[in-house]
Amino acid sequence: MTGHGGDRPALRGGRPAEVDGEALTVPFSAPSAGPPPWQVYRFAFHTVVGVATREPYGATRRRFEPQRP
Fold first, then answer.
1. What CA–CA distance (Å, rounded) separates 27 from 57?
2. What is the tens place of the pLDDT at every residue in 37-56?
3. This prediction's pTM
4. What is the C-alpha separation between 3 and 57, in angstroms, rounded?
5. How far is CA 62 from CA 24, 29, 44, 53, 57, in A?
6. CA distances in angstroms from 63 to 9, 27, 30, 60, listed in the order given
7. Positive or negative: CA dihedral 46, 68, 41, 4
8. In sequence order, which residues have a C-beta less than 8 Å from that of residue 27 and are 6 or more positions away?
9. What would the pLDDT profile of 9-22 be if each residue is shown by its tens digit?
C-alpha cells in the first residue's frame, strides 16, 4: 500500500492512515464502520450499467478503458 508519506498514506481528504499488514487503520472512524483493521479492496470495472427506478426511468451504460501500469 502506498500513498503520502511512505508508511503513512493519506486517505481522500488528507486523513492519516496506518498500514496494519494488509489492512488499514485510522485513529477515528464512523461507528458503523466497526472496529479496525479494515481490508482495502480495488474494483476494476470494464462496464457499468445504471437503471433508474423512478421517472423519467431509463438506463445508461458506461464502458471504461483498461488502465495501463
1. 42
2. 778 788 888 999 999 999 99
3. 0.39
4. 40
5. 30, 32, 13, 18, 17
6. 30, 37, 33, 10
7. negative
8. 16
9. 555 666 677 788 87
DSSP 4-64: TTTTSPBPTTS-B-EEETTEEE-S---GGG-SSPEE------SEEEEE-SSTT--EEEEE-
Q: Are strands 23-25 and 59-63 parallel, antiparallel or unpaired?
A: unpaired
Residue 35, all three cell numbers: 472496529
Give phi and psi for 16, each to the nearest 5: -70, 145
The cell numbers describing 43, all together, are 474494483
Residue linked to cell 438506463: 59
Sign, CA dihedral 33-34-37-41, equals negative
